[in-house]
Amino acid sequence: MAGRNKIYNEEEALDKAIKVFWEKGYDNASSRDLQKAMGIGMGSFYLAYKGGKQELFVKSMNRFFSVYPTYALSMLKTVENPIEVLRQYYYVMADEEGLFGQFGCYFSNAIIQVGDGELKGNAIGHITNIVRAFSTALLRASKAGIIHPKIPQELWDVYLLNLWTGLNTTKSIEKDTQKLKAFIDFSLRSFE
Fold first, then answer.
1. Which InterPro entries does this chain map to (predicted)?
2. pTM of the prediction?
3. Is the dihedral of CA 167, 172, 174, 177 positive or negative?
């Protein structure tokens, strides 16, 4: 007996699941919340995501990674001076009107909120990939003499990661976007 064909667009369904996970967090997003948002029934949900909510969350993180940082990561591969690309990336996190400003970083939230080691590891992997792309672009610019970093290269990943995760927490306390952007500018001066 052949299986039923999917009657929904998987990318659209994942985008809707991302919204639910982002707004409610992994633990507070029920399978029913996800099914309703995705527009699929319980049978289709468990047929598509045999691992249930956990499998869906992994797929949502992979989908998120394939959509949100893509433009910045592709820019970093070709731009001579990556500082402005990094600045704009961090500015998006600080913008209270955007999804990052409202709900925080999808990956940082997962690291903090999720107890499951596999899920946490997936989120850590995505953030690490982005931070390494930042560092690779900075190293290329440094070798070309375009930027003159003031901190040791072996600390770049930790520095950028700390700026990322620190900003994710700080913006919950400090609501003045201009102050947050000034902090980002000040932090990135360490690479100019």
1. Homeodomain-like_sf, HTH_TetR, Tet_transcr_reg_TetR-rel_C_sf
2. 0.87
3. positive
